[in-house]
Amino acid sequence: MNMPVLNEIKKSLIAAIWFMFLTFPIMVIKVNTITRTIDWRWKNMMYTGIGAFFLSAVWRYMLRRKEKNQNALEKEGLSIVQKILQVKTFSIPATVLLLIFAIVFPHLFSMHQTNIMISALIYVMLGLGLNIVVGLAGLLDLGYVAFFAVGAYAYALLNLHFGLGFWTVLPVGGFLGAVFGILLGYPVLRLRGDYLAIVTLGFGEIIRIILENWNEFSFGPAGIANIPKPELFGLDLSLSAKTIYLYYIIVLLVIFTVFVINRLTDSRIGRAWIALKDDEIACQAMGIDKAKTKLRAFALGATWAGMGGVVFAAKTAFINPASFTIWESVIILCTVVAGGMGSIVGVICGALLLILLPEYLRDFGQFRMITFGAVLVLMMVFRPGGMIENVRRTYQFKTGETNDIHS
Amino acid sequence: MLELKNIQTRYGKIQALKGISMHADPGEIICLIGANGAGKSTVLMTICGITPASRGDIFFKGKNVTHMAPEKIVSLGISQVPEGRRIFPYLTVMENLDMGTFLRKDTKQIKKDLDYVFHLFPILAQRRHQPGGTLSGGEQQMLAISRAIMSRPELLLLDEPSLGLAPMITRQIFDIIRKINQENRTTIVLAAQNANLALKLADRGYVMETGTITLTDTGKHLLANEAVKTAYLGI
Questions:
Q1: How far, in Å, are A142, A288, A337 from residue A345 at the CA level?
Q2: What is the CATH number of domain A109-395?
Q3: pTM for this one?
Q4: B212: CATH
Q5: Interface predicted TM-score of the whole assembly (ipTM), two decimals
Q6: Alpha carbon distance A137, A139 (integer Å)
Q7: Of A251, A304, B191, B205, whose Cβ has the fewest other Cβ atoms within 10 Å?
Q8: Residue A359 or B29, more confident
Q9: Chain A closest CA to B112's CA: distance in Å?
Q10: Do B70 and A287 touch (CB under 8 A)?
């Protein structure tokens, strides 16, 4: 065995001993209050030690491997996934296959599965929308769910009072989302980082609390029920047909979102967002209107949340403020961060994984959240850039004609 | 072309500029010299509206631009190369240059200007698909200057173009600055600590000290001035 390995084993051993010491009072000593004796459970200590040793060893091994991989990555430039995404001969058939799968999905699986998929796709849309604000423009928004709520309540209330249908409200929901995006964006234009996060967090809560307490307007915690599903040329559809129809609507909406955001990232305004994230003063010196650019990010990001909200209200047929807690904002943010900030494919994968996994891990019930948390922590250690990191352009080095200027 | 009348600028409670009056005629190269914290950068930032003046007036081509928004001022034809280069590290060289044309829509002329920039700095043409952050310091400075002239400015503000560069690169950059001035009749205001090179390049110079202008003369006379020599040239 060579030295580094021995060294790592030594470190793991120390970690194990330290852990045994730390957990001694809770793992070993057990006071029996009836017989007034103390049980010394030395076996537990042994288990803790062995467990800690192996976990620590695995942890160290993974860190080592990550370092090695990183060196290899720097040589190659791109990871395998990123390369695959850029090879057209692969990415085009893959997209086609994925599309076919998306089309036949509701016919292959049960209605329950289709319903789960609809909510997952709603989150994909939300993730992509938030990706504009957080991933591209670099504005940390913790109150994103507020726009989602705006969309959902727009559909519920407009339908209740004026009998407006899904298709009429869908653009209205998007528009209202944008308006609220600007309403939030305007006062926070001067804020950055932590301060911005706190204010947006507050904004999200304000919307929820208003919905909860303004009974005359939003019917309070009781919520609004009997929200109709979208109609198809006045046809009378069965519930399952309606669900499938809604599924196709959200699939189309997601494709539309991907298309628009893809165009946006390659546009001047998309580049202005990235530039603004890097350096505000340089942007101003270039004549980029800071306020306008930020407001556009807020508005465009919130539009998708508004439309997602309309679909959500149509899907669940019942909404109340409990669906729009801060927790939802956090999950949406997690999908963006875990998927890979700024990367469209990454965000889609992140949203699908983070929404579908807990759905299928329901059997584990109480461990759901802890696994969720652990996955996120591991993610940040081993893949801080997200599952599929955002790559903007390929580097094109031309060997032979590089006469570097050293300075 | 450009005229500052008794400009005062504050950062909160601290007054950075205590009444600056200066002017630049079309096609001139003006140089601001002074020690750290004299207010050179603040003058440039105030001209392009990023740190607006609290008192006084700035006129550009006869228009009062004192309280205009930065993007408005840029659209009038003022462009700045900020201190420390401040290129966008995650955008490629091409995209960085494209940001310089943010307010322009004349695609054909932009293409011509791009060729001009690549003619000035051939190294940038080689590196055009590389992210700005991967360039060397000298190349970043070249990119920053190129990005600024991509907006076709009539007045170019340069803040410490020689900061942290090797003497050879500095000379090269100063040569190009002169070239830009001569070929396009661009008026240039240059803030520099490298007073020797800057004064040789400049038509006129202003010496700044703690927010005021203490001396002004032609570049040649300032180079010969005893006080300037001892204070800034280290001779």
A1: 22, 29, 12
A2: 1.10.3470
A3: 0.81
A4: 3.40.50.300
A5: 0.85
A6: 6
A7: A251
A8: B29
A9: 19
A10: yes
